Amino acid sequence: MRLLRPAGGDADDADDDDAGLLRAVARGDADALAALYDRHAGWLYARLKRRCADEETVREVLQDTFVAVWRSAGSHRGRGEAGGWLWVVAARRLVDAQRARARTERLAAPEPPGPAPSAEDRVLAGLEYGDVGAALDRMSPELREVLRATVVDGLTTREAARLLGIPEGTVKTRALRARRELRAALGPHPLGGTA
């Protein structure tokens, strides 16, 4: 399709084709940029709109495209039409705009709440910081080690004996003593019975 030229202009004039307009833009000719914009902005807008539904982003990208053309028109090395070069510039600007928007959204998004503590974590926190923790702190270190190894860490008597470097019988005896001291320190269980 051939565009109609204004009267008085020669259709074969070098400044009338895209390459000529780009050479003029490279020399700082704002009228040449306006002519290039009038010639290509419509189809560039339509193609950008197919790739991005946000009209504001599309308008900004189109404007950025022609600002980039103004700055780098001298780098165009093609002959004749510059549509392909303009599309590459516009597509790159669109990708940059979409990345910037995604980065901004990621930074603006509130941090998701951390996972709720598990039942085991709550029990262990109670052992460390609650009444049980205070009772354990008042126990002798030997009894506390055995109780932590067998109850908190869930080791068998044999595994606890190996870990602590004491005989299995000693582990059993200390565990029994530790449980008795713990019951005495905690008193009756709130649900009835003893701890």
Please describe what this structure looks like.
With 195 residues, this protein is mainly alpha-helical. The protein has two domains: 14-107, Rna Polymerase Sigma Factor, Chain: A (Orthogonal Bundle), CATH 1.10.1740.10; 119-186, Arc Repressor Mutant, subunit A (Orthogonal Bundle), CATH 1.10.10.10. 68% of the residues lie in helices and 0% in strands. Helix 2 packs antiparallel against helix 3 (55-72) and helix 5 packs across helix 6 (131-138). The chain is rod-shaped and about 100 Å long. Residues 1-15 have low confidence and may be disordered. It comes from Streptomyces lateritius. Pfam families: Sigma70_r2, Sigma70_r4_2. Residues 132-182 form the RNA polymerase sigma factor 70 region 4 type domain.
What are the salient characteristics of this protein?
Arc Repressor Mutant, subunit A; 68% helix; mainly alpha; 195 residues; 9 helices; Rna Polymerase Sigma Factor, Chain: A; single chain; 2 domains
Question: Largest sheet at a glance?
Answer: none
Q: Which CATH-level-2 architecture of the largest domain? A: Orthogonal Bundle
Reading off the top of the CATH hierarchy, the class of the largest domain is best stated as: Mainly Alpha
Number of strands: 0
State the separation between the terminal residues, measured CA to CA. Answer: 92 Å
- Oligomer state of the chains in this structure: single chain
Low-confidence stretches: 1-15
Number of helices: 9
Number of domains: 2
Could you tell me the CATH topology label of the largest domain. Answer: Rna Polymerase Sigma Factor, Chain: A
Query: What is the CATH homologous superfamily assignment of the largest domain?
Result: RNA polymerase sigma factor, region 2, helix turn helix motif
Which range does the strand content fall in?
under 5%
> What is the average of the pLDDT values?
80
Give Rg in angstroms: 39 Å
Encode the helix/strand succession as letters: HHHHHHHHH
- Structural class, from secondary structure content? mainly alpha
> Shape from CA axes?
rod-shaped
Helical content class: 55-70%
